[in-house]
Queue: 2 jobs
Job 1
Amino acid sequence: MLVQPYLIRFAVGTAALAAMALLVGFDPAIAGDKKPDAKQKTAKAVPAVPAKVQQSKEKVAVVKPSTEGKQLGYLELANLIDKAIDTRLQAEKVIPSERADDSEFLRRVYLDIVGHIPTAEQAAAFIDNKDANKRAKLVEELLASPDYGRHMADMWKSLLLPRNSDNRALQTDPMTKWLEEGFNSDKPWNKIVHEVLTATGEQDKDGAVTYYVANATVDKITDNVTKVFLGVQLQCAQCHNHPFTDWKQTEYWGMAAFFMKVQSTPPQMAARNGSSPEVKETNQPRRGRNGLPDSAKQVPPKFLGGDEPKVKASDPLRPVVADWITSAKNPYFAKAMVNRIWAQFMGRGLVNPVDDMQDGNPPSHPELLADLAEQFANGNNFDVKYVIKAICNSQAYQRSSKPNSQNADAAGELYARMAIKVLTPEQFFDSLRVAVSNGKAPLDPPTVTGPRGLKFSPRTQFVQFFEAEDGSDPTDYQNGIPQALRLMNSPQLNNGQAAQVMIRGKSKEQAVEQLFLTAVSRRPKVKELEMVDKLMKKEDAPKVYADLLWALLNSSEFTLNH
Amino acid sequence: MNAHQPLFGLSRRDFVKLSATGVAGVSLSGWMNVLASRAAEAGTKHKSCILLWMDGGPSQKDTFDMKPGTKNAGDFNPIKTAVPGIEISENFPKFAELTKEATIIRSMSTAEGAHGRARYYMHTGYKEGIGGLVYPSLGALASAEIGDPQNPVPNFVSIGARSFGSGFLGPKYQPLVVNDAAKGVENLKPLVGDTEFENRLDLLKEMEDAFYHDFQAGSSHAHQTTYDRAVTLMKSKEAKAFDLSLEKAETRDAYGKTKFGDGCLLARRLVETGVSFVEVNLGQWDTHQNNFEKVKELSGIVDPAMSALTKDLKQHGLLDSTLVIWMGEFGRTPAINTRAPKPGRDHFPRAWTSILIGGGIKSGQVIGATDKEGAAVTDKPVSALDFMASVCQLLGISYTKQNNAPNGRPIRIVDKGATPIKELF
């Protein structure tokens, strides 16, 4: 009982770490013919790795999707998901947790699809609804909401636009809006990515050019394209042959070669001139100020792990690489995306971490990943909502997060119970806003003009205050003392008024119920009513309700997506 | 460790005690008692670091590497200091008396001339984005390597700016950011009365216990731990370190009664309670225009603060165990630009100056030299890595030690190629 929580957390977070360590410390042969260098020796002291990972030391054969050539509906795909998950559970003799109750499912699916919790009324309506199909219908309803696109845009903006010192003057709203529209209008994923990769012109006219403005040098864009769209961590290969995988330096620069002719206005310059940053692809590769690092190699453009396309020196190169990346035949593209979608909902990727797809980091369910990719790319025209519907209608997704007597220590990759994710700062802000205003306030607060005339949004300021590091695990809790202090003691979150408004005109039982439904989308348990009664003996009712709301909003139950 | 311990560990009596002693009313003697008992417990000398971060890149030719009589010497004259042979700008009269405690490094030479990347580089010793990792700031490293984990105050405190975070070392070593030293840590006091706050904590504890019992989530435990630390800080004696009103008015005056001066005073108080690393920010050094007026103004802020800090640390017996660093991300051009009506100097990483004070260094000296105009280093070039390695060594951190990044890659505290500056030891 004592050590359990650590095992659960570490099983999820360090499977990949252990895999990497295995490569470095236990078998130099993995790195091909490269001589093990001094660094590898020091990594020997690492946790033991499960036997399953050791088997994958050989080159993994490409797994053929069992549904190749077929077109599955989302319910059929959901069944396929469950078959794959259950098969492994049975093989490992792990009993999965029971189905999540309505409250658990409701709050989880709201957070995962639209990025915020339901109101008290929405929660009560769903829980009391007797329709046997209510869960499936809720998924459809949420996918049709504009908040879906908003939530996806928030996530993808963070992936595509790195937060670094060069980008401090960068306006990111145009990209967020562009992404939001794309997701909400059901634009197929391959089209979205192709448009981003070939975006040209001024940011005012095409928000997608922000991508190149934010990744302004050849190495930055190469790193991001390969990591985010192909799920491959190439950055190490920028300067030397990758120590853990087979990627050579020439592979890196072969991909980088496609972006050598891109020019973009630096954000600080555009801000100073009051103009909109512009992106274009010229006829000639830029020299000097293209920000080429010392490690740069001039090689002809070459697809990652693939051929050198025939191109004329004066042709634009981005459309060529965009065509290759977004093709249904691309070996990485569809897999990388379905893996990310899977991780968004299930708390960890089938390949984990999601941006590290390589032989030394195999998927937990290889056939499932292949089938998801096949149905996404070939069966259903890169329809993102299709994949989401399949996942959300599966039993695996609808499993409770509570462990049973047997599976508390089961490895996360078995999906014996739903992983517990931490609310992102955006989800947290939006959910607090929904809770405190009972859904009446619009999700985006009005912008405020700051001291230097800069407009900023309280939401942005909040998000920055709570922001975790880039690329952190969704199940990792990142808040520090300043965040905790702010949540406990800041005026906005100590709004006694909010509690009073919520419970106005209600009896004690109704009031307590309203507060629970508002914050954690469920009705209070008997023990919790007793707890409130006890407090009522010490304090006046208004104080009790304010205290209860405070405790609920500061609780793990509110902060976590379970 | 029993993860199921009672939350916060606070009894009603603890809370009554807290409100009785209150925030006001702890005299200096009270502090000395705290200090004495800690020293008795610890036995060994515990090192701390105060980084005075001069954001924007201070001009070395107008501060600590004067070139009188040369073409672009600028508006200021050098003055003698307590160490014969060492001269600094006339705008640092107070510090001139204290050069026996300092070592001035005039041969800093780094290649990074862009603010963002140079700041990152000088804080972490790594180039931004290399290898796809976020590297820990020096403060986070100090917190992790030499910080006392029992300290209720986080061991990395950043005053006046966010600094750089703990990167792959994780959230435990993130800085506690204090925007304004005069205001202290924000949200440290509950908005309701003590009794009601205790009732709230009781409610929260019951909910947390029940949630943990049902879900057994590591993240829930982390949440509780963070809240625990926050509440511990709220009720701790050490939190009073953040209350500058407990200092005598003369003391605050001596530091200059500026935001930066207050920050330096707060840094001294934090070091007294055992915090390993405090960073105090002073910006606006990026004097492409109006170099001389601005540098004079900023020098006027630094001089009393840095001097009072040095004297204060010495008086409290903390100077030997506290390393004070004065530096920015680079220096400024030997040449003066006349683009704007008020002349300025531009970025110059090739040859610039940093200062070390206390911390057990061999002091009262200058290390390195630049040529007549200050355009190049002529003696003992010091790279960013050399500098970081030296600081680590002075603080008792092994600069060759490796930490594991999330991708499994071992990362040295200071990258390969670093040589500590032997003249410091």
Job 2
Amino acid sequence: MNPTRRHYWAVRVALAVIAIAALIPVGYLVSLSLRPPDDVLNSRLLPTEWTLTNFTKVFDTIALGTMLRNSWVIAVGAALLAVVIATPAAYFTARRYRGERLLTALLASYCAPPIVAIIPLFFLLRYAGLTNNLLGLVVVNGIANVPVAVWLLDGFVRRIPVEIEEAAVIDGLSVVGAFRKAVLPLLWPGVVAALLVVFFLSYNDFLFAVYLAVTKESQTLTVGLSLFQGDRNVQFGQQAAAGLLGIAPVYVLALAAQRYLVGGLATGATK
Amino acid sequence: MSAVELVGITKSYGDNAVVDDVSLSLPDGSLTVLVGPSGCGKSTTLRIVAGLESADSGTVHIGDRDVTAATPRQRDVAMVFQNYALYPQLSVAGNIAFPLRNAGIAKDVAAQRAREAAERVGITKLLDRKPRQLSGGQQQRVAIARALVRTPSVFLFDEPLSNLDAKLRVELRSEIRRLQQELGITALYVTHDQEEAMTIADQLVVLNAGRIEQRGTPHDLYRTPANTFVAGFIGSPTANLITGRIDGGFFDADGIRWDVAGPDQAAVTVAVRPEDVLVRPDAGGAGRFELVELLGPRYVFIITIGEQRLTAVVEDAEVARWARPPVPGDGVAVTVRPDRLHLFDESSGKRLPAA
Amino acid sequence: MSRRVPLWLALPAVAGLLLFLVYPTGYLIALAITHSSLAHPLRSFSGAANFSSALSSAAFVPSLARSTVFAVLATVATTSLGLTLAVLLRARGTKFGVVGALLLLPLVTAPVLIGVAWKLLLAPVGGGFAEAFWAIGVGGFNPLGSGVGAFLVILLIHVWQWTPFAVLISFAALGVVRPELLESARIDGAGTWRTFTTVVWPAIAPTQWAVAVLELVIGYKVFDLIVVITAGGPGFATTLSPYAIYQTGLRGSFDMGTAAAQTLIFAAVVGAVATIVTATRARALKAEGS
């Protein structure tokens, strides 16, 4: 299809505007993180004085190192847990007669605002001694995101022709064996996509963290950032630096894995 | 109803010339078939005529209008696609009427004309159905009805029957031919099936790697192929191509010595069609039956003779007159009528002029 | 073969469902009908007391309406913007490239962080936009200072964050449209709009509805932004239900019983709205003959 020249430029301009709009908040954070405290509220988007000290000072102001560690541990743990549960479940929903009912149930549960589960979970975790505990958040985030992972992986399983498992079964494998040996190796783009999605959802989670892990030792980055707000003399520059330090590795991960994320969403959406 | 004129059409993807300087005249009211192996550029040429793709150079005229830069809508062409391209949520009637509605024709007039088009292809009973409720053949009829409802200047067919089973293909191709002749609309038809091409074409064009190998009537291409490619492409089973030399009125190749009318030639390729290979069981003959296949009313034999393997087709009626049906290993004598030998220069593949 | 897929493959996921849906619902009901606090849950039976205090609280009932308005607006904005952007991107070709990278940023950035950024951008004194506002003549513009303004700001940020999701899914859905249908429409003389309604929309309608339902649910869940930017204010202008429940149970009187009652009421509202949308979707898709 050949758009006319005017059409072509309109598209480019529109996308450029969107791109800039997408970058302003994060760009502003970068700009804030590079300012000394007096320059933070300078009414401008760009700094008038530059400094890199925020990035080092912030580790003294809050336990940023601990928070980053917590966020990463929880996110990675939750991703692994969710995918371990979701992969066999997705095979079930995709292949089993009437298996999609499970998927519907999972999605329905996901539609309920997490608020619904939070309070009971709080009491349950407190009873089990898992509040203010990384393992507790791993379990909660992992299980909470199982529906998303199943939804993604289900799409991927359906893309694999059933004949592959049938051939494996004829060759003497059990159904589960066929799943392990024939399907799983082909499923890994979906697994990667699911791992990434659950990772991002857990890393950015605030709701569970703020209810279930409030001690200094167990706080995540998101909770830590919100706590900056409470102080009288808010170090916005440091807050921005903390945020960026938290988000930069995640961005890099997202950009590097872009293909998997986009492909994963596409497969999940268009089955 | 207009004639179509293509002059110097070229289209390349990178270094690869998919269509290479193709010039073609489609006489008004005729059906021209573009045939060739996959990747020869026939579909691309068709799409350039349709306006779905633009040529890098060359012109397209429909009637006396230069449509080279025109959009498909402006060209007044109709196209039948390989996978039908029916709009799934519209009924059959809606699908057929769609082009008319786009041209601003009133709903009831369009519906009436759609009904008439449906009658022509015999699908009036299906007007209220949705495409997914129809078989492949029915869907393709709807696509054909949609194409002819506008009575366009040119009909374009892009391998319309390739997705259908063999029987349906034979049935539909003669229907398409009949409709095209009744309406007298110039048509350009692309197919990879040479048998289909032979049966319906007024003008047959063989394409290979973006270039025209030969154009003419099916009879011309069958009787006087211009080069070894056309000789090998047209006709089924494929013609026998044998390299050798002509010496003193004989064609010599390993194991073969046939009378031929032609001047001495050191390097020559000879094409002889399987139906022109005359075969007679002979225990002392120079050849041996290697494979015997019965295909309904005729036999196909693969015969080894010297270093050559020849394909021969013999009518069942004739084999019946032999002492017994041949089995692999039996001896056979092979002769060919000199006038059924097509002579080509070995290096260029081009047809050698008659002696 | 499909009947031979063993049930136990689904067991962990089902266990998760029990943990995350069945148990919480049961426990919530228990909390809601007892006197419960954060420190001492399930002390004694209270009947419908918590429900009545939930319904009579100044913050909660209006928050239901606010949440619904917010979710509906967010859904309309994200899905239509998402589709428009996806169409524009498709016009450029099917590769994602740089634009894809940019699109991912809002999605993978923690709402908390975004909230902080926007709060500072919009600060009337010293904020990032303050000088720019002066320059265009709206000096001292403080959207977060008014109820409507704050609501719209949260809405805008939420739309900013979740449109890329709609874009990605719509983009994928557009890729499924069969090219020969588009070509056939061109040859049949259909203009851009006609082609969209006849060829494109029928193919993508189911996905668009799915996106709408998802965005609706996500719109109801908004919490992080409120905590970080407005703390529910000014007044109660941005107190959406999740925040109201948070205030009841983890702040103030730590009244878990009432918070549980509120949660159940809220879940019922969300469920009702989601069912309406799903039913509308089913009817719309049926009408189009998909």
